[in-house]
Design goal:
- This protein is an alpha+beta fold.
- It folds into two domains: 151 residues, Glutamine Phosphoribosylpyrophosphate, subunit 1, domain 1; 215 residues, no CATH class.
- It is 40% helix and 13% strand.
- A hairpin with a 5-residue loop joins strand 7 and strand 8.
- The protein is globular and about 70 Å long.
- The two termini are 26 Å apart.
Length: 410
């Protein structure tokens, strides 16, 4: 957990020279002095003026308050829990995971969107700071949110630009990638993310990090906005979901309507050179930063530093202009799992075992995994391999995590 009386900064400010000049600070000023001066000048709008990829926790001298901030597009995260007497904040969700209550609404988001939209997290009563959000909390005696500001997508794209550093070429490639024995990687992957494996890219990135010989990873992969608009739709047999998941359809619809309303308001008031559609707005606002954060967790587990070249307002703005008229593209077929795998352990055999040995406090309360229903699901692998495999990964790793950390569902 973070000590709220101590300054904490992770990441990098990429327009440091410009900021020190504006604030009339010496070039060798410390991170603390720079951020404190920036806060005094810009307050909650600080992340409009400080470019980069960072997370800030800045104690304020008066009234036991603390300032929290994520950069406009950030690969860092902040999680918090307010239990009315104590405000707990951490940069990792794992600090809140022991005997946690799993939120079926979050699981439903993973199933439908492969992603949980902040401020929601996998756990009830634990929340995440949004990208581009800054907040001031009173953290003693009776914790409460004093004030907060959320940057719109337009503000993020038009925020302070990075100074032009030397471009670092990406060094994450899949030339040597082997998909041998992937199944045994799933438990470790879910543990380091403190989240079920919900998307196949998570597995691929883990393998890429494992084979990399570089300590400094440079991720220069261009976000493919054309794929965002062509995601496969959910085609599960809904009998496999028990009541706690099936009843999430209405809240999920309400959330999507709320987000669409937010999107319309931002588009109406924003300044876009190329106006994104709703799917791209969702991707840039929630999914892409969350993907970067998970990739950072994976890299850090292997003691590697990572930099995301597209975690930059100007680069994303240019990308949006370049891909304003995307061509019809379909996602590539899965290459991870096969029914013909003759290994003694594989994902499909594991699903059969889950039918009879699911973890009662979580798995068996959310999923109705019995032979006739799961057999129908697995038969869909021929036409919808990615969906079926992602569901298998999610249900298996959720079961694994829940057992080892003693999770439950109300």
């Amino acid at each position: 957990m973070i000590n709220l009386n101590e300054f904490s900064f992770n990441g990098q400010i990429t327009n440091r020279n410009n900021v020190t000049s504006q604030l009339k600070l010496p070039e060798n000023v410390s991170d603390f002095e720079l951020i404190q001066s920036a806060y005094l000048k810009w307050q909650l709008a600080l992340n409009l003026y400080l470019a980069g990829d960072y997370v800030i926790v800045l104690p304020l001298e008066k009234n036991q308050q603390v300032f929290l901030c994520l950069s406009a597009f950030s690969s860092h995260q902040l999680f918090y829990k307010n239990d009315a007497t104590t405000l707990s904040i951490s940069k990792t969700l794992s600090d809140f995971s022991h005997q946690a209550k799993v939120d079926p609404f979050a699981v439903s988001q993973l199933l439908h969107w492969r992603n949980i939209c902040s401020p929601n997290t996998l756990f009830k009563d634990v929340f995440a700071l949004n990208n581009g959000q800054s907040a001031i909390w009173q953290h003693e005696s009776n914790p409460e949110l004093i004030s907060q500001k959320q940057l719109t997508l337009s503000q993020k794209l038009n925020a302070a630009q990075s100074e032009t550093p030397e471009h670092k070429v990406g060094n994450i490639t899949n030339n040597e990638l082997s998909f041998f024995n992937i199944f045994n990687q799933l438990p470790q992957l879910s543990q380091l993310m403190t989240q079920p494996v919900s998307a196949l890219w998570q597995i691929e990135f883990l393998l890429l990090v494992q084979i990399s010989h570089d300590h400094q990873l440079i991720c220069d992969h261009k976000p493919q906005l054309e794929l965002v608009q062509n995601k496969s739709k959910n085609s599960f047999n809904h009998n496999i979901f028990r009541r706690r998941l099936n009843t999430q359809n209405s809240p999920l619809t309400k959330l999507k309507k709320y987000l669409f309303k937010q999107y319309k308001l931002e588009i109406a008031s924003g300044a876009f050179e190329s106006t994104p559609n709703f799917e791209v707005w969702m991707y840039l606002t929630f999914e892409l930063p969350n993907k970067w954060a998970q990739q950072r967790l994976i890299a850090q587990t292997y003691n590697k530093d990572i930099q995301f070249n597209y975690c930059d307002s100007n680069k994303l703005k240019q990308l949006l202009i370049e891909q304003s008229n995307p061509t019809k593209t379909t996602q590539p077929h899965s290459q991870f799992f096969s029914f013909n795998d003759e290994s003694i352990v594989n994902i499909f055999d594991a699903m059969q075992r889950l039918m009879h040995h699911g973890f009662d406090p979580v798995t068996n309360k959310l999923f109705h995994i019995v032979p006739p229903i799961s057999a129908k699901l697995l038969k869909k692998h021929n036409k919808n391999p990615t969906q079926v495999e992602e569901f298998c990964c999610l249900s298996l790793t959720l079961d694994h995590l829940a057992r080892h950390a003693n999770w439950s569902v109300d």
